[in-house]
Amino acid sequence: MILLIAIAQSAAAQSPLSGAEFDRYTRGKTLFYGFDGQAYGVERYLPNRRVIWSFLDGDCKEGIWYEREGQICFLYEDRPDPQCWVFTQSGGGLIAQFEGDPMATELYEAEDVDEEMICYGPDVGV
Question: Which of the 8 DSSP states describes residue 14?
Fold first, then answer.
């Protein structure tokens, strides 16, 4: 718990990542994110600012990301409204704060996750 607080505090002192910095850090990677000490989701970062997100349930959503007013915003195939985050980089990886609001959800890049991103195919049947 103390480690998570230290990471969050060090991130608060960091400058938000620009779109170019975020792209350099994420492109070609699959990153697992945690929230409040628990696994939260996984995102695969593809060329041309494309992404695939899952809440670790095998239901994957394709999307894109773009930079807007110092935030990294994501548009997914199942949501018409952008999900915008302020990303900072700490010694342990990325920290993402929803809409840059200190009272909102804060995700952190999970380290040493021994899992693969699993995406099941579309639902088939009647």
Answer: S
Do 74 and 82 form a contact (C-beta atoms < 8 A)?
yes
Apex 4 CA angle, 116 and 54, nearest 5: 30
Size (the chain), residues: 126
Give just the sign of the alpha carbon dihedral 84, 50, 7, 57: positive
Kindly give the pairing relationship between strand 71-76 and strand 83-90.
Answer: antiparallel
Residue 19's pLDDT is 97
Q: Express each pLDDT in 11-37 by its tens digit.
A: 445 799 999 999 999 999 999 999 998
Interval 54-103: pLDDT, tens: 999 999 999 999 999 999 999 999 998 999 999 999 888 999 999 988 88
Tell how far CA 105 is from the center of its chain: 12
Q: How far apart are alpha carbons 7 and 51 in whole angstroms?
A: 25
Which CATH class name applies to 2-109? alpha beta
